[in-house]
Amino acid sequence: MQPIDVIINADDLGLHPAVRRAVEELASAGALTSASMLANGLDQDALRPYPGLSLGAHLNILRGTPISPAREVASLVGADGLFLGSVRALAWRAMRGQLVPAQVRLEWSRQVAHLRARGVAVSHLDGEKHTHLLPGLFEIACDVAREHGIAWVRRSDERWGAPVVGAGSVRRVLLRALAARAHTGPMIRTTDAVWGIAHQGHRFTAAAFARAVEGRSYARGPRRVVEVICHPGREMPGDPALPAAFGRMRVHSLWEPEFRSLSSGAWTAAAAANNWRLTSFDRLLQNPSDDR
Question: Which residue in 81, 87, 198, 276 is a FRET match for 247, CA 20 to 30 A apart?
């Protein structure tokens, strides 16, 4: 196979102690290279440096309580002062032009600043449920990245992989259409593709990823970068429930199967067998001679 760089990124660090446990164990085992932090999540103790991982901001105007006072981001919240908790409701506001861009930028910038105040060196930005790709929002995310000197913003373009039946395929198609209209502007980089949007939970396996990238040819240069998006968690008795303020969530159903997949050793074995280099956003910037 042609060599590729693979970033394995866990989303939702800070959401819940189960996610923190999984990230700690997988990072220690070398099975994870990156994670994205939810600045307004339940588990604030998770917002700290993790040796060996590049860390990003999981930009969130979808769930929970804003970092900003509600009156300063009124177009993003409901009457209760919380984010809307529904992708459909947020998308409807975005498509009707009811989200005030300056308020989106203010909240996202404050989320990045909140992580930095915890000692986190933020290397990349992405969005809760990929909502940073909604109309008009990707450019704001890139502006926030430039403001804070962040090089990478996720473009959620999952172009490879066998079709799957169900919501995963619908998500992939919709996000690909949004990604095609997403322009970074100067100084911002994106990976060549992502993987893990359609193949989640029990479908999230190293073998499925290997099949997705097998035999792919690349038009630009010798080495491409793919971000693998995952949601591992290790839930324990006595853990708190997911916060009610975050609305309906299905992510806890992904925690155990994706943790099991990553902790099995299958991903590191597949990397060795298939000429993948497991890397991170930080390492790609620190070693330009190894870059794309």
Answer: 198
pLDDT tens digits for range 164-219: 777 788 889 999 999 999 999 999 999 999 999 999 999 999 999 999 998 665 54
CATH of domain 4-290: 3.20.20.370
This prediction's pTM? 0.94
Does residue 266 contact residue 209 with C-beta atoms inside 8 Å? Answer: no
Residues 6 or more apart whose Cβ sits within 8 Å of residue 241:
none
H or E element in which residue 113 lies:
helix 101-117
Residue with more model confidence, 64 or 245: 64
Given a contact cutoff of 8 angstroms between Cβ atoms, the answer to whether 125 and 152 are in contact is: yes
CB 273 within 8 A of CB 61: no
Task: Give the DSSP letter string of 243-260.
Answer: PGGG-S--THHHHHHHHH
pLDDT at position 215: 67
Per domain, the residue ranges of the chain are 4-290
For helices 252-263 and 17-28, angle between their N-to-C axes, nearest 10 degrees: 10
In whole angstroms, give the CA distance from residue 284 to residue 280.
Answer: 6
